[in-house]
Amino acid sequence: MVEQPELLVHNSLTRKKECFEPLDASLVRMYVCGPTVYDYAHIGNARPIIVFDTLFRLLRHLYGQEHVKYVRNITDVDDKINARAAEEGVPISEITARTIRKFHEDIAALNVLPPTVEPRATEHIAEMIAIIEKLIDRGCAYVAEGHVLYDVSADPDYGILSKRTLDEMMAGARVEVAPYKKNPMDFVLWKPSKEGEPAWNSPWGAGRPGWHIECSAMSWKHLGETFDIHGGGIDLQFPHHENEIAQSTCAHGTPFMARYWMHNGFLQVEGEKMSKSLGNFITIHELLQEWPGEVLRLNMLRTHYRAPIDWTRKGLEESKKVLDKWYQVVGDAQPAERPDEAVLAALCDDLATPRAIAELHRLAKEGRTAELKASANLMGLLPMTAEEWFETTAPKVEIDEAEIERLIAARAEARKRKDFAEADRIRDELAAKGIVLKDGPEGTTWEVKR
Ligand code: AMP
Ligand code: ZN
Q1: How many whole angstroms separate alpha carbon 90 and alpha carbon 340?
Q2: What DSSP line would sit under 319-374, residue for residue?
Q3: Which one of 40, 45, 106 would you pick to mutate in the ligand 1 pocket, going by the greatest count of ligand atoms within 8 A of its CB?
Q4: Which of 409, 450, 410 is closest to 433 using CA atoms?
Q5: How confident is the model at residue 246 (pLDDT cuts 50, 70, 90)?
Q6: Nearest bound ligand to CA 248?
Q7: Ligand 1 site, residue 274, Cβ cutoff 6 A
């Protein structure tokens, strides 16, 4: 048995790098807050997906594939989803199903592994209601005007993650003041649905859950009352994660929810967080039209996950060049049995991916192809052969659709006059450009084969 390095992770709860010790080494458990599905995800949203996928891969390497359970949820009930459904005049399920499909396509192109479980909020309403009932029973929540609210002043630990007092929170946050709240910081666990909004039956009337309770319910259902790692973007630390901790520890009477809280920094554009509301975003989908997914992944991992990334075209061009070089070196080499020790050590040091990448450069320089392949694979990189890579990245043939249609018509004419040689010549001419014709009862259609 090869000695594995110790895994260090930066824990937002203590603001320190700590030695990772799982509660149960036979099943390491991690929860990451997933997307709210109403539209294409932007490349900022891809950051936690790629970062925690890299951690998932590392944990699987250290503890064994069968010994890691990774839960990444989907938020499929939300005001933005309702608004989009109303705008298009369709049920929310149509918006969410469509968006989830696109999301899966996008992140598969980034070579992101599917999590062990991908729970959806709307499928866990019963668990949410169960937790809310426990919170009311324990005196941590109260019912007011059809709402159920978490009572922050009854919780001496509230603020444990964000390290703020109630007064500081009130000064800093945009709190929704409502006459039925005991304290302005009290947050919604359950609220009545407005006319036309989706609603579920509950002991407090037809309504819908607050956002924070979703993650407490889904992590409880799939990972238990306590688990090892909880992750997400730094913007979720407060109030979302603070509120998850408050709900879960109070409902279950546990001293903690997750042992280690990990947060990725922002992906920025000209110094500002990329976000839908600022309008400075570019979707993963759009970027994939121009760049192979692996370029986006490498570009993300070139910065340490806790530091801000400035997302630039120059960065993408550099990442593309690096991959061209590595693929040239690696050719069709098979991966070594184990990744390089220095790469592994870097990843085990709070996911120091820039250092791991520097080590990959060293392996490339030394021509150690099998180690390069195995070590890059551990980070979700170099999954293809060189031949596949250069084929996918070869400049695309410009497709002139009108010209294709003209040739298809000419071929149909040729066939009509039984000039099959000419018909075949046209088909071959198109095939040489990667255009494949299909003859069917409705006529001839075409598609691009690369
Ligand atoms: P949302 O759909 O806004 O709840 O975000 C989904 C995930 O993406 C959360 O973990 C956010 O923290 C994360 N996120 C959103 N915008 C950014 C950004 N610009 N940089 C890094 N992470 C982000
Ligand atoms: Zn969450």
Answers
A1: 52
A2: HHHHHHHHHHHHTTPPPPSS--HHHHHHHHBT--HHHHHHHHHHHHHTT-HHHHHH
A3: 45
A4: 450
A5: very high
A6: 2
A7: yes
**Residue 170, Cβ neighbours under 10 Å: how many?**
13
φ, ψ of residue 307 to 5 degrees: the values are -85, 155
- Dihedral sign for Cα atoms in the order 17, 21, 27, 31: negative
How far is the centre of ligand 2, averaged over its atoms, from the C-alpha of 316 (Å)?
30
| The model's pTM | 0.89
Question: What's the farthest any 2 CA atoms get from each other in the chain?
Answer: 88
Mutate to test the pocket of ligand 1, among 47, 110, 242, 309 (most ligand atoms within 8 A of CB): 47
99 lines ligand 1 (CB under 6 A): no
Q: How far apart are CA 336 and CA 327, in angstroms?
A: 16
| Among the bound ligands, the one closest to the CA of 73 | 2
Nearest CA to ligand 1 atom 21: 266
The pair of structure tokens assigned to 258 is 């997750």
Q: Say if residue 255 is exposed, middle or buried (CB neighbours under 10 Å; 0-12, 13-18, 19+).
A: exposed
- Tens of pLDDT, residue by residue over 363-386, are 999 999 999 999 999 999 999 999
